[in-house]
Amino acid sequence: MKLLVVEDEKRLAVSLKRGLEADGFAVDVALDGTDGKAMATENTYDAIVLDIMLPGINGFKLCGDLRDGGDWTPILMLTAKDGELDETEALDTGADDFLRKPFSHLVLVARIRALLRRGKTERAVQLSAGGLRVNPSQRRAWRDDDEIELTAREFAVLEYLISNVGMVRSKAEILDHVWDYAFDGDPNIVEVYVRHLRKKIDIPYGTESIQTVRGAGYRLVGTTS
Question: What pTM did the predictor assign?
């Protein structure tokens, strides 16, 4: 697997390259956003590790440019320690995941491998199932013509289910994709959020788009009854 690391802190870039190569990856390094964009567009990579604060072109702009150009290589963006706004903008510009500095090398590799398992899948601007519509970049949802107000976590659960419309997803899978990787609380929290969603997107409209599959998990269907 071939990775591109775009990081302007030379010591960190060299450390990342050595560590990732020790884990079996082939690694190219760019020390600024301009070179990073050129390398990303001229070569094929399985994933990109991208810092935000870069000379030339910053990470947000580089990520957005790649997505606008139809490049859906998985991108893991490196954010500041307390950069909640950075994380939000990273996801909104098309990044697949983010990791706060400083970070553990083991966690970095685990995140990269998770992205590699997903592959280069284009994310639609809008997802739909029956009369239900979701716009991931704007964090907005509608049932027919009615916009539905959702909390950030409710939206994340709905987005995951509608991205896998028709497929059963277990509590463990939902937790893995919606909650932080370090979450160690009660898995039944998934039931709580599914119940909240049903009260907002199904019950008022006499529909049943989120189905419980006993012993297996939940499924969002395209046609409701």
Answer: 0.56
